[in-house]
Amino acid sequence: MPSKRKLDLPPAEIYKAAKLASNGSRHAHVEEDDDLEAGPAPPPEDDDGDYGPSAPPEDDDGDDEEGRFFGGGITETEKEVLDFMDSNQQSTAFDAGPETIDGSWLKKTALSFEKKISRNAELRAKFENDPSKFIDSEADLDSAIKSLSILSDHPSLYPLFAQLGSAASLVSLLAHENTDIAIDAVEILSELTDQDVSASEPDWSSLVNACLEADLLGLLTSNFSRLDETNESDREGVYHALSLLENLSSSPTICDKLGSDKPLVQYLLNRISTPQEKETSQNKQYSAEILAILVSSSLRNRTCLVSLNAVDILLQQIAPYRKRDPDKSSSSYTPEFIRNSFECLSSLVSSPEGKKAFIEAEGVELCLIMLKDGGPKITKPSSLRLLDHACAFSPEMATKIVTEGGLKTLFTMFMKNKTSVGQTTEHLIGIFASMLRFLPAESPERIRTLAKFVEKEYEKLEKTVQLRREYAARLGVVDAAIQEENNTLDRKEREEMEDEFFSRRLDAGLFCLQSIDVVLAWLIAEDDGARDKIKKLLADRDEDLGVLRKTIQEQIEGVDEGGEDGRETKEMLSTLIRFLV
Questions:
Q1: What number of other Cβ atoms are within 10 A of residue 101's Cβ?
Q2: Which of 9-23, 215-229, 374-388, 477-491 has the lowest mean pLDDT?
Q3: Cα–Cα distance between 500 and 482 in angstroms, integer?
């Protein structure tokens, strides 16, 4: 492997040799024979190759007082000289340094890689029924694939790697008859495209585009079908494939391509709903995470998933937790899987098709059960958020909530919620605002909703106005800080900071304050008793309906009229503001 290449040391030169005496004595001696040639004597014919003087033990004290040699055949001084020369040789050999990883190296590596692919294919075709004939070439190919991991340290070579056709060749190995080879290829592709690799956008894209052109997605999907996750190696292969998909989804354009690939999406949906899997495995959880990424990317992806019955499949995954949170003591405790499933659903119900599928699959009923009996850590807050997303811009959803008895559940949560400022409050207010906007006028469902606000001596109105004060106070602190900062900026700097300031105001609760004021405006417009009560509550803090009018006017100015929803929202707000006088 180029990344772990070992340098071979040159053979050590023989500087000294001594001939052993025939009697086995290790004392050096000279035979007075005129026929002897200079130099060491050859080994005996029956010698096993281990000849020459053996090294003296480290604690050898064989030299006499004058430094003459006895046991080792050399003096102590000569031994030190030889040790120094030997260590110097090894040091010189290592000074050659590692091989330079550059374009020339890549061209040689790519050529060798292609040869190994061709050789293996040739031998497999020739000796199809005799694996022993091609097993060595397969091992060579396996090593060649793994050696490509060093490219992740040199991402500037990605364009050349793609240009040489090696990226396409690597992808083609996903179709190799040996699944181990295919898994190795997937793992390397996952390493090369990992977000931790410091690749520039053009370099990363050059590699990924070459892989996609070589039918990476199709080959990945076909590999999923032939990998058996009861086998540890195959299970790891699926994990690497999912990791590769996550890497690819970091590009919005490619994420759209992934989310609209129906065979791929169908696999992911099947993977999270495997009936024989009693515990939530790592790959099941990973599949849910990737689905959450895909559905949050674009409307196109959400439409694709809805068409594949994703809403019903995901509801089935969360249904077992309708009356509890996942058990922390269980070995299968995987809260992330539940959260990702809710995340997927929250994105899917943002489209009209998703809302329709949610109602047909009895999603509203399931959420209401969870709000009433579910676990407080995961299922309750997640189902409330899901219901808030589902209710937006949907008269059918608002009506369904009322007909299924949701008013009692929602208003009980509203009154019992001890944390005034937070996600629970914001989602409840969001649902109330949607219901007041989209429930048909004079319908029984609308009348029942209005009655809930005014019952028990307007206690819910009092709670709503109290929430308004708290959110207004939080926003007021941020607005004051922004104003102080604005005073130190010139006009151009203020324009540059507009988005930053708006983000700060949102974090302080601007959206929830606006939603509260819309709820109060609807109640003022439709019920005289509610109008009088709200005016009285505001007067307790020397306020009047003008504070509501100011907030709603700000909303009107910020509405984007580019779409139908925007135009309808502006028309609704403009109507409401006329009642705030």
A1: 17
A2: 9-23
A3: 10
DSSP string computed for 169-207: HHHHGGG-SSHHHHHHHHHHHHHHH-TTS---HHHHHHH
Q: Categorize the per-residue pLDDT at 85 as very low, low, confident or very high, splitting at 50, 70 and 90.
A: low
3-class secondary structure, 235: helix
Q: 86 vs 16, 80, 82, 92, CA distance in Å?
A: 13, 10, 6, 10
Instruction: Spell out where 335-383 has E strands.
Output: none
pLDDT of residue 332: 64
Please report the DSSP string for 475-543 in residue order. HHHHHHHHHHHHTTS-HHHHHHTHHHHHHHHHHTTHHHHHHHHHHHHHHHHH-HHHHHHHHHHHHTTT-
Reported pTM = 0.79
Residue that the structure tokens 């020369």 belong to: 85
Binning pLDDT at 50, 70 and 90, where does residue 417 land?
Answer: confident
H helical segments located in 5-134:
76-94, 103-126
Q: Which residues neighbour 35 within 8 Å (Cβ) at sequence distance 6 or greater?
A: none
Looking at beta carbons, which pairs linking 558-565 to residues 24 or more positions away fall under 8 Å? 565/393
Give me the mean pLDDT over the 39-48 stretch.
Answer: 48
Owner of token pair 């970091």: 250
Arithmetic mean of pLDDT over the chain: 86
Q: Is it the case that residue 309 has pLDDT exceeding 60?
A: yes
pLDDT average, residue stretch 509-534:
96
Number of helices (H) and strands (E) in the chain: give both, helices first.
28, 0
> 173 to each of 1, 6, 54, 166, 522, how far by Cα in Å?
19, 27, 53, 11, 63
Mean pLDDT of 200-229: 95
For residues 383 and 322, the answer to whether their CB atoms sit within 8 Å is no
CB hemisphere CA count around 207 (13 angstroms): 25
